[in-house]
Specification:
CATH topology of the largest domain: Nucleotidyltransferase, domain 5
Number of helices: 9
Shape: globular
Order of helices and strands: HHHHHEEEEEHEHEHH
Oligomer: single chain
Helix content: 40-55%
CATH class of the largest domain: Alpha Beta
Strand content: 5-15%
Distance between the termini: 5 Å
Structural class: alpha+beta
Number of domains: 2
Largest sheet: 5 strands, antiparallel
Length: 296
């Protein structure tokens, strides 16, 4: 589909989800209604992220320049940015609901991983005052990267749809977040070598019904059959693909804001944009992670 069809499709999808959330929760407590509806604001944000426009200024300028006929009330940038930030709970609820209606939240096999999220240059970390005391120094062994910031936890269904995305501190080892990454889930969880911990695996299997499968390190024995290890190795590529899409297409590692509240808002917006792309591909019978082919 072209960009115009994509904007209309996303707007209809957002309207459906917004009305359902509004019927269950009170979104606005009073005051004057905004000139730009919440559905329009969320649509502009999601389409802007999908068009690789990652700052509020770029999104506003692009849609005001090229799609003014579709959004005639898009007049003042400060009002747009403020309204968009205040809707972060709505966007998080839409993301959760899309995973439910698509059936991906109930997938019995979901892959976990973490993604480094630098918040500034490593040499500037000692002078950073925006995220103290939340941000910290961390190391990503997969990318051989030392950075200052956070970790993004990812739990991904076999289709590639993100079902959970907790924001985690950067310093602790990945295995310490195993319980948080599989919260409210029971089933099979392929993971990489960073999540090897036989005691935690046995505890999760006993208490929660979570079967964690990790490849063995060199010289290490494993109780898992080779066929299961090969299947899990193939599935782990899904979460790696999702991580590369978030990093490259949605620039999730280049969020530059001054406080944690705005940081989480931008993070949720990017995750929701990715979820909408996967959801539309599933509805159209296309490959779920083929986001580039979704737009003509």
């Amino acid at each position: 589909m072209d960009r115009t069809d994509f904007i209309i499709t996303v707007y209809c999808l957002v309207c459906d989800q917004y009305q359902m959330i509004k019927s269950q929760h009170k979104i606005r407590r009073g005051g004057f209604a905004p000139t730009l509806t919440d559905e329009e604001v969320i649509t502009i944000e999601l389409c802007g992220e999908f068009f690789k426009l990652h700052s509020d200024e770029d999104i506003f300028d692009h849609f005001r320049e090229y799609y003014r006929d579709y959004f005639p009330n898009l007049t003042e940038r400060s009002l747009f940015v403020r309204q968009a930030a205040n809707l972060w709970r709505v966007k998080a609820a839409i993301q959760q609901w899309l995973t439910l209606v698509s059936g991906q939240a109930n997938d019995p096999v979901q892959v976990i991983d973490t993604l480094p999220l630098p918040v500034c240059g490593y040499t500037r970390a000692c002078r950073d005052r925006c995220f103290k005391p939340y941000a910290d120094y961390g190391h990503c062994a997969a990318k051989n990267l030392d950075y200052y910031g956070f970790k993004l936890g990812l739990r991904v269904a076999r289709s590639g749809m993100i079902t959970s995305f907790p924001l985690l501190p950067a310093r602790p080892h990945d295995v310490q977040f195993l319980e948080e990454l599989v919260e409210d889930f029971s089933g099979t969880v392929p993971a990489d070598k960073g999540f090897i911990d036989a005691f935690r695996h046995a505890l999760l299997d006993e208490r929660q019904g979570v079967f964690v499968v990790t490849p063995p390190r060199q010289g290490m024995t494993t109780p898992h059959p080779p066929k299961l290890l090969r299947a899990c190795k193939y599935l782990r590529k899904r979460v790696e693909t999702v991580g590369s899409q978030l990093t490259e297409r949605f620039a999730i590692a280049r969020i530059r804001v001054r406080d944690l509240w705005h940081y989480q808002h931008r993070l949720i917006r990017k995750i929701l944009a990715h979820t909408v792309g996967v959801f539309l591909n599933l509805q159209l019978g296309r490959k779920p992670l083929d986001l580039d082919g979704l737009l003509a």
